[in-house]
Amino acid sequence: MNSEPTTALITGANKGLGLEAARRLGELGWTIFLGSRDEGRGQAAADKLAAGGARVVMVPLDVTSDESVTGAARLVREHTDRLDVLINNAGAPGRALHPAEATADEIHSVYDTNVFGPIRVTKAFLPLLQAAEHPRVVMVSSGAGSFAVVTDPDQPVSQMHELAYSSSKAALNMLAVRYAQALPEIKFNVATPGEIANRTFAATDMNNHTGQLTVTEGTDSIIRLATLGADGPTGTFIDRLGPAAW
Ligand SMILES: NC(=O)c1ccc[n+]([C@@H]2O[C@H](COP(=O)([O-])OP(=O)(O)OC[C@H]3O[C@@H](n4cnc5c(N)ncnc54)[C@H](OP(=O)(O)O)[C@@H]3O)[C@@H](O)[C@H]2O)c1
Fold first, then answer.
1. CA of 17, closest atom in ligand 1
2. 64-85: per-residue pLDDT in tens?
3. Following DSSP, what letter does each residue of 25-65 receive, concatenated?
4. CATH code of the domain covering residue 130
5. To test the ligand 1 pocket, which listed residue (206, 208, 216) has its Cβ within 8 A of the most ligand atoms?
């Protein structure tokens, strides 16, 4: 058994749910690689967690840049020879344009963060993940990425007309399933931060703090998947309350 602290990289961890996940996993004694596309904001967040006793390394990481992702993998490798947990959390909401107004360019920029970003990061960190005893990847998705939720007339999202965000998260869900099938030695699971049945989500900058849940509540599903034991599932989708419908 490896007695070294568990290591986790979280993308977009300078604020919101990523920062709260970093705080909670840091409290468990894990070594946190805190990804942030802005070095100043990332370092400020890392310093705050370190002042609270966490073992944390700030990693400059813009998920839309191959160069940045390669540099991040190089930096993490300087600190560890394995990565136990990767949390693909960084996300962009897009401009919520009506489908009649949406353009491929606008959608492309959202996909660059929400879909191509997790692919870039997962690919770059695969060797470090594969060197871990029981590696886990958590994809931070959304109820808006669920066909079951979006086609339920009782869900508010069914009345919110946009293309980019919901379809990017649906693509992310499929990525997780396909990775899980192809790489059984790594657990790939999907978390949505809200409670689908209660139509609630977590208050963060992304929703102008209109969410009903705290960031601690919003990270419950993420923490559950990040801390799965070796006998835990792969290829699943959960919210705070339990299994979520695809
Ligand atoms: N809040 C909810 O209830 C809720 C519900 C469903 C899904 N989610 C998902 O949860 C995740 C976290 O969102 P949040 O609510 O915590 O929102 P947030 O507070 O706005 O945080 C988003 C994070 O993503 C980072 N980010 C954006 N583009 C990036 C890029 N290209 N490279 C690296 N980092 C980037 C942001 O960095 P900057 O500070 O530099 O912008 C920020 O750290 C997202 O994937 C979101 O879609 C949240």
1. 16
2. 999 999 999 999 999 999 999 9
3. HHHTT-EEEEEESSHHHHHHHHHHHHHTT-EEEEEE--TT-
4. 3.40.50.720
5. 206
